[in-house]
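Hi support team,

I've been running sequence recovery on a batch of backbones for a student project. Most finish fine, but this one hangs at about 90% for roughly twenty minutes before it completes. I'm not sure whether the input is malformed or the queue is just slow. I've pasted the structure tokens below so you can try to reproduce it. Let me know if you need the job ID as well.

Thanks,
M.K.
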């Protein structure tokens, strides 16, 4: 959740709610202007969160 807060702090959309389920996926409730597409939001959140996690936990790269 902290990683997502940092990412959206630099974007025009906001994470209103976030919940991790069974440790393998996340549900995110997002508010964004109509001009921002869902696919763009997902791409931004996934790419930046994965990059941040791989830098902090390099062993994850080997497992994934």
């Amino acid at each position: 959740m902290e990683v997502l807060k940092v990412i959206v702090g630099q974007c025009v959309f906001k994470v209103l709610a976030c919940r991790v389920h069974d440790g393998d996926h996340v549900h995110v409730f997002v508010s964004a202007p109509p001009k921002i597409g869902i696919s763009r939001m997902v791409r931004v959140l996934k790419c930046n969160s994965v990059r941040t996690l791989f830098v902090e936990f390099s062993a994850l790269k080997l497992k994934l």
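--
Follow-up from support: It reproduced on our side and the slowdown came from queue contention, not your input. The chain has a mean pLDDT of 84. No action needed from you.
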